[in-house]
Amino acid sequence: MQIRHKETGEFILEVSGPSLAGRRVRGARLHHAALRGEDMTGADLRGADLCIADLSGATLCGANLTGADLSGATLTGAKLDGAVLLDAKLLGVNLANATLRRADLTRATLRFAEASGADFSDAVMPRADLSYGVFRGANFTGAQLDEASLNFANVAGAKLRYASLVCAVLIQADLSDADLDQADFMHAALNGTDLRGANLGGALFRHAVLGGCWNLDRAHGVAEARYLELGSLDVRTLRASLGSLSDESLVALGIVKETIASLRSAVGLGGPDPRSAA
Known about the structure:
This protein is largely without helices or strands.
C-alpha cells in the first residue's frame, strides 16, 4: 500500500499489504496523508504525525493513537470505537459525525475541535481539554469527563445522560438544550454557562458552583436536580432567575416558601443578564 500527500500526490510511506489494519507504524510521519476511507483497524500509530491528514470515513476501531498528533486532521464520519487516544493532540480536528464509542481520550486535547453530531458514548475522557470546541448534538452518554475542561465549548443540544463531570470546569460553555439527566457535576465549576432549555432533571450538583450562569430559569427539571442548592448559586445567577423560577423550584433550592415573595422584592424580579452585570 502506498500512502501519498493528499494535495501534491507525493509519495509519503509504503507498507506491505493492502491496508494499515493491524500494522505497526509507530512514529510514522503521515502529515497531509490521503487516508480517506482506509481500513486502519487495530493499527499501532503511537506517536504518529497525522496533522492535516484526510481520514474522513476511515476505520480506526481499536487503533492505538497514544501520543499521536492529529491536529487539523479531517475525520468526518470516521470510526474510532475503542481506539486509544491517550495524550493525543486533536487541535482543530474535524470529527463531525464520527464515532468514538468507548474510546480512551484521557488527557487528549480537542481544543477548537468541530465534533457536531459525534458519538462519544461511554468514552473515557478524564482531564481532556474540549475548550472552544463545537460539540453541538454530540452524544456523551455515559462518558467519563472528570476534571475535563469545556471552557467556551458549544455543547448545545448534546446528550450527557449519566456522564461524569466531577471537578469539570465549564466557563462560558453553552449547554442550551443539552440533556443532563443523571449527569454528575459534583465539585464542577459552571461559570457564565448558558442553561437555556437544558434538562437538569436527576443531574447531581453536590458541591458544584454555578457562578454568573444564565437562563437557569429557562432550564427544565430544576426542582428534580439533586443537590442543586442555594449555596451553589452566586447572587448574579440567583437574581437573574429569581423572577421566573417557579416557587417549587425555589423551594427545591432550599429557599423557605414564605420568604420567596420578600426575596424577590429585595433583589428585583428577574434582574439583568448576569453576563452584563458588573
